[in-house]
Amino acid sequence: MDWTPERIAELTRLWNDGLATSEIGKRLGISKNAVVGKAHRLHLSARPSPIRRVIMRSAIVRPPRAPVEPRHVQHAAPPPAPAQERVVELSNQTCKWPIGHPNEAGFHFCGERAIVGKPYCQSHTALAYVRAKPKAGEAA
Ligand SMILES: [Zn+2]
Known about the structure:
Blueprint: H1 5-17, H2 21-28, H3 32-41, H4 50-61, H5 83-90, E1 98-99, E2 108-109, H6 122-132, H7 136-139
Antiparallel strand pairs: 1-2
Helix pairs in contact: 2-3
The structure holds zinc ion.
Zinc ion binds near residues 95, 97, 112, 120 and 124.
């Protein structure tokens, strides 16, 4: 592998363009290591590496001492949120229970927050359940 003045000029140009060493090697038909080695011998300036910059910045931000665990403060785990609150958080669904008759002007859907996994709100889900399976006591 001859480093002709032309190839050295090309290496220098690509290097200064900020191409990856592997990409430069591909264009010159040589290995990435050959690119790095030649660039080193030519004393081409090290190019700013975005990865290295991020590492350096985070090293500066990080406090020099190891963080101290606050062992003396021991809180019990927070109680689980009530079921109703979880429904509100997890679903924007609204109750599809029809109010009125579809052919009449005032017809609309309930619009209350529906239970997760159900098309109806809490009270209408209960209603639907009662309709489908009447309680034994009510039949008498
Ligand atoms: Zn409803």
